[in-house]
């Protein structure tokens, strides 16, 4: 097809990364459009891209929850690929619009209902997977969860299963460590509302080929990781488990996230006071408020953290299985420096890891490599061209196995 027009939905730190990277790889794309409810946020991102990349981005103010208005707008700009990095609350509306106009769809996180937390797994069956037939009938490519986690770690999981002897992979432990510091008393690295919702409900993991539940911060592990050293992390529910358990025949799939003691203490106080509830309450003055939204309003905007962020992230998969009949463990991972990310695109490392992969996926769609014309999760796709491309775009993948710690890349792909 001709160069596809790109529509970026969202205007936060991740959208800023996406906009810069789409502009940097402009040779694969046609017109670039940036949309959110806040035109001034879109304009600020577009001005930054124009200054650094010399590329103009069209900006628009649209409520993506208004599906009909979104459909009309997408048709007016002939949108071909939609990169949805807005709130997870808009996923269903945007996906339906893409199906209606025949545009390919990419997102970085699973859909959420603002009135619900930790629904019965698998979460994808509750929302996105219900539209599989519609995507295939419309002939659109819909790649779900193609950020870093979910996203790149799904590719790492697929690589691990392919690395070990067939049918011998027993454990996939996804470990997400942010060893950086933003210098604030308390803040979240992405939308506080979405961040807290991940941790206030039950922790669902896939163990012994079944769903297991725990409480947040109930189960802890300690790892000595490349670059960031010894780090603690906690068993946490997360998007990718809800597709990996179905698409990869592995009995144990867990997600672990690092938290400082300070974060856990503040989080625990907020939760115990009821300030992380998504359910509305009525004040003495008769005002109806949602406590979680109030907390979000008083915390720092995650994008404001970027200029002073220092340190590094380390995100990867520790996987166990048999290699040539011998029990073996590997670690496939990536490290990002917060200051380097800020210097390149004006966002901190967490946003960088989430924003680069959907642009890589859009390039692979534009080149026809990942143009599936149906709905898929990332582990269903060939990971090799994705990892090779990310290696050139700022997200370098390394592997630790019996051969040492080395760059992971693939010849002849």
Task: Describe this structure as you would to a colleague.
The chain is of the alpha/beta class. The chain has helices at 13-24, 39-53, 67-77, 91-101, 123-126, 132-138, 152-163, 192-199, 241-247, 261-272, 291-298, 338-345, 349-366, 383-393, and strands at residues 6-9, 32-36, 58-61, 81-84, 104-107, 142-144, 171-178, 203-207, 210-214, 220-225, 229-236, 252-257, 281-282, 288-289, 312-323, 326-337, 375-377, 397-401, 404-407. It has an eight-stranded mixed beta sheet. A seven-stranded parallel beta sheet has the order 3-2-1-4-5-6-17, with helices on both faces. α1 links the parallel β1 (6-9) and β2. α1 (13-24) runs parallel beside α2 and α3 (67-77) packs across α4 (91-101). The longest helix is centred in the C-terminal third of the chain and has 18 residues, at 349-366. The chain starts with 5 loop residues before the first strand and ends in a 6-residue tail after the last strand.
Please give the structural blueprint.
Blueprint: E1 6-9, H1 13-24, E2 32-36, H2 39-53, E3 58-61, H3 67-77, E4 81-84, H4 91-101, E5 104-107, H5 123-126, H6 132-138, E6 142-144, H7 152-163, E7 171-178, H8 192-199, E8 203-207, E9 210-214, E10 220-225, E11 229-236, H9 241-247, E12 252-257, H10 261-272, E13 281-282, E14 288-289, H11 291-298, E15 312-323, E16 326-337, H12 338-345, H13 349-366, E17 375-377, H14 383-393, E18 397-401, E19 404-407
Parallel strand pairs: 1-2, 1-4, 2-3, 4-5, 5-6, 6-17, 7-12
Antiparallel strand pairs: 7-15, 8-9, 10-11, 11-12, 13-14, 15-16, 16-18, 18-19
Helix pairs in contact: 1-2, 1-13, 3-4, 7-14, 13-14
């Amino acid at each position: 097809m001709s160069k596809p027009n790109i529509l970026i939905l969202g205007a936060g730190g991740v959208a800023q990364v996406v906009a810069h990277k789409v502009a940097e790889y402009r040779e694969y794309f046609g017109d670039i459009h940036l949309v959110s409810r806040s035109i001034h946020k879109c304009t600020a991102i577009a001005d930054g891209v124009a200054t650094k990349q010399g590329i103009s981005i069209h900006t628009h103010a649209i409520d993506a929850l208004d599906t009909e208005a979104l459909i009309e707008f997408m048709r007016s700009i002939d949108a071909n690929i939609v990169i949805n990095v807005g709130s997870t609350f808009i996923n269903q509306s945007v996906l339906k619009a893409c199906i209606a106009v025949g545009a390919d769809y990419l997102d970085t996180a699973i859909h959420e209902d603002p009135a619900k937390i930790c629904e019965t797994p698998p979460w994808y069956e509750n929302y996105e997977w219900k539209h599989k037939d519609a995507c295939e009938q419309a002939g659109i490519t819909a790649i779900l969860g193609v950020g870093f986690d979910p996203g790149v770690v799904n590719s790492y999981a697929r690589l691990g299963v392919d690395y070990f002897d067939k049918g011998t992979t027993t454990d996939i432990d996804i470990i997400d460590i942010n060893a950086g510091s933003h210098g604030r008393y308390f803040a979240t690295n992405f939308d506080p509302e979405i961040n807290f919702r991940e941790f206030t409900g039950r922790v669902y993991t896939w163990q012994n080929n079944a769903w297991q539940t725990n409480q947040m911060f109930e189960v802890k592990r300690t790892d000595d990781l490349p670059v960031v050293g010894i780090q603690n992390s906690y068993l946490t529910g997360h998007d990718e488990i809800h597709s990996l358990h179905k698409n990869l025949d592995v009995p144990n799939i867990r997600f672990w996230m690092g938290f400082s003691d300070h974060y856990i203490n503040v989080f625990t106080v907020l939760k115990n006071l009821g300030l992380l509830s998504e359910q509305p309450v009525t004040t003495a003055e008769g005002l109806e408020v949602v406590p979680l939204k109030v907390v979000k309003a008083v915390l720092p905007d995650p994008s404001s953290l970027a200029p002073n962020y220092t340190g590094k992230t380390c995100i990867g998969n520790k996987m166990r299985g048999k290699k040539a009949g011998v029990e073996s463990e590997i670690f496939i991972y990536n490290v990002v420096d917060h200051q380097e990310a800020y210097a390149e695109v004006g966002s901190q490392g967490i946003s960088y890891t989430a924003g680069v992969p959907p642009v890589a996926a859009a390039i692979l769609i534009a080149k026809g490599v990942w143009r599936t014309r149906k709905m898929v999760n990332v582990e269903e796709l060939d990971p090799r061209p994705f990892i090779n491309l990310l290696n050139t775009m700022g997200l370098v993948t390394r592997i630790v196995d019996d051969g040492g710690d080395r760059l992971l890349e693939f010849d002849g792909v």
